[in-house]
Amino acid sequence: MSTHHPTPDACIACTTCVVNCPVARATPNYLGPRLIGPAYERFRLLGLDEEKSLHYCSNCKNCDISCPHGVPVSTFNMMARADYCRTHKPTLRDWVLGHGELLAKLLRPLPAGLKNFGMLNPLTRKVLDKIGIAADAPLPAFAPARFRDRLAGTYQGMQPRKIALFPGCFIDIYDPQTGFDLVWLLNRAGYEVIIPREFSCCGLPMIANGFANDAKANAKRNLRAMQRMQEQGIPVISSCPSCVLMLNQDVPEFFPDLAQTCTPHVLDAQAFLLDCVERGELSLEPQSDFAERVVYHAPCHLRAQGGGLPGYELLRQLPNIHVENADAGCCGISGSYGFKKEKYAIGMEVGAPLFDRVRRSGAGLSSSECGTCRLQLTHGTRKPSVHPVSLLRRTLEKTA
Ligand code: SF4
Ligand code: SF4
Description:
Layout: H1 16-20, H2 22-26, H3 33-45, H4 62-66, H5 73-87, H6 92-98, H7 100-107, H8 112-120, H9 122-131, H10 147-152, E1 161-165, H11 168-174, H12 176-188, E2 191-194, H13 204-208, H14 212-232, E3 236-238, H15 241-254, H16 256-259, E4 266-268, H17 269-278, E5 292-296, H18 300-303, H19 310-316, E6 321-325, H20 344-361, E7 365-367, H21 371-381, E8 385-386, H22 388-396
């Protein structure tokens, strides 16, 4: 991690971030962003021991979004956690949650049924609970094969243009269908989708669980591929807002030495699709009789980028979809935070207003770009939750 720590001096102690921190609202175990971020940072600079409530920060970034003085509160917290983990060995649980991609690689020889039986059956859930993963947490199931391997064997037609996709672990390991829905749309707009072989986990789960060195190694690989794409003039997109945020904003902030060789520039896939519509490459004219009422949830990591809500905009342009923006804050999962035994109840409490909003809306389903938000939404509302690109495909694909 960088030694160029940002300075806490811009904080004027206005407490706007405290009011907007969903975790501080939900639990007294967390002393809040102002104290644990910029205020405690001054003590850290003096070499004082870490305040233990730091570990309750979920890295949802609502403090950064709301701070009128641009104080990078969540960056202080994540850097402090990385420093802490250098001298205090992280738990097995945090290693498992920080290294989903590596775990999937280690388990790859096993068939998905067996893997899922091994990971998700009640007995294993009891064992996982013992190492600190809540027995009730909505863990995702492994797909039979990785999305990128299946895509490599898929004919995409003769397309005039190429686009590189950063799939993100969620689509790659657990949810290939969403990846194929996006590929279907991009093919329709005239793009062949490639996935450079170096693309690995963006590193956000590693940072959030205290493994900064591993995140840096992944950032190096990802930047190498990104540089090659930039040299070839091939745009890079991702449909996961957390991956986009990590690659574009967090990587240069955490590892400025790496970002000197290549400035990461990943486009939001939904914004790219909107541009395709504007350029006349993609028509949003419905081709099926699919119609639905949907509540849209904007992931915190999308709002933190300040680039609007392109996925919601796409849904709003579909005449067959009646979509409302939930505008109900954080869902509470924050990547792997809500899976943790001591944080599961906090995550459910944080997400309660959103679940209530979806339940009371009368909508058949919810929609969000973030994979773990969708898991949490399904868990909290008992209604399905899908990525906006899946609703787009269901609208634009002719039904037989
Ligand atoms: S990242 Fe989220 S949980 Fe952490 S201090 Fe900021 S608002 Fe609170
Ligand atoms: S970090 Fe920003 S929002 Fe929070 S107290 Fe300081 S100035 Fe206010």
